[in-house]
Structure formats: C-alpha cells, structure tokens
C-alpha cells in the first residue's frame, strides 16, 4: 500500500519550525488511517456482534477517523502543514464525544455507572458527569492516537 500512496504523492509536508529530526518525515505517506478504519470495520462486522453498541463504536471511530482524514487531506492537497485548525479539530472531537455519550445514556441505555480500574468499586455518576467523562476520555484517546501517528 505504501508504494501506491507514494505514487499518488500522498506525502506529508513538514513544518519548518520544530525539531530537525522531523524534516526526514517530509514525503512520508499519509492518509493510511483510512486503511485501519476499513480493516477495523470489516473485522468488527465479520467477527463481532452486529448490535447497536457495535454500530455506535463503528460510527464513533469513523467520525474521528474522518476528522483525521480531513486533516491529512488539507496537509497534502492544500500544502498546509498544520492541516485542520486545532480549535476546529477539538470542536469536532467534542461533538463526536457528545454524540457518543448521549447515545450511551439515551437510546443505548448503558447507564452512567463507571467501574474503577483494578478494583471492584463502581462509581454511579449523574448524566452530566458521565457526559463530561466520555467527552474528556474520547478527546484524550483520540489525541493520543493522533500523537503516536
């Protein structure tokens, strides 16, 4: 797949500011996240349940993936190394997290209790606290994935 991305000139543009070591990333194929989205979706549909929770997870993953795709597209095709503005990415991520949280406490009815890792303790959150937690965790997780890319 990398040769195809190189042939299509879907390479990364690197900003002039920042560490010198990042300059070697110039031309590195980008937009490969779409392949991971497709693979994860196919695997989920092939081997996972096809219930509302699975469809919600797929939708949330694609929502965040499309934000990344738009970011990569702007970097590559419009030659803007910064891609989508940080404020816009944050706003879209918050909307995706809000959508996920509202689906969870609404139609999916998964409840607002949260299990504390490595213990048997269960926190019973109110709807507002649960929504805030889901948004914060979804933004943090998405940014962690983006930073490792």
Description:
- This protein is 60% helix and 4% strand.
- It has 149 residues and is mainly alpha-helical.
- It folds into two domains: 84 residues; 65 residues, no CATH class.
- The protein has a two-stranded antiparallel sheet with strand order 1-2.
- A hairpin with a 6-residue loop joins strand 1 and strand 2.
- The model has no long low-confidence stretch (mean pLDDT 84).
- It holds the Pfam family Glycos_transf_4.
- Keywords: Membrane, Transferase, Transmembrane, Transmembrane helix.
Query: What's the total number of strands?
Result: 2
Radius of gyration: 18 Å
Strand content: under 5%
**Biggest sheet strand line-up:** 1-2
**Helix fraction by DSSP (H/I, runs of at least 4):** 55-70%
List the domain count as a whole number.
2
Q: DSSP helix count?
A: 5
Estimated structural class: mainly alpha
Q: Residue-averaged pLDDT, rounded?
A: 84
Shape: globular
Taking pLDDT < 50 over at least 5 consecutive residues as the criterion, the unreliable ranges are none
InterPro entries: Glycosyl_transferase_4 (IPR000715), PNAcMuramoyl-5peptid_Trfase_CS (IPR018480)
Organism: mine drainage metagenome
GO molecular function: phosphotransferase activity, for other substituted phosphate groups
Pfam family, one: Glycos_transf_4
């Amino acid at each position: 797949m990398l040769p195809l991305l190189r042939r299509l000139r879907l390479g990364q543009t690197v900003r002039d500011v920042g560490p010198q070591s990042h300059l070697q990333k110039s031309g590195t194929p980008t937009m490969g996240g779409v392949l991971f989205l497709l693979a994860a979706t196919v695997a989920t549909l092939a081997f996972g349940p096809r219930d509302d929770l699975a469809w919600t997870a797929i939708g949330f993953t694609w929502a965040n993936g499309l934000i990344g795709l738009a970011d990569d597209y702007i970097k590559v095709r419009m030659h803007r190394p910064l891609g989508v503005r940080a404020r816009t990415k944050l706003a879209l991520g918050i909307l995706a997290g809000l959508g996920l949280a509202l689906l969870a406490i609404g139609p999916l009815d998964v409840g607002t209790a949260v299990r504390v890792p490595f213990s048997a303790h269960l926190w019973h959150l109110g709807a507002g606290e649960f929504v805030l937690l889901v948004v914060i965790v979804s933004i943090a997780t998405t940014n962690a994935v983006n930073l490792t890319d």
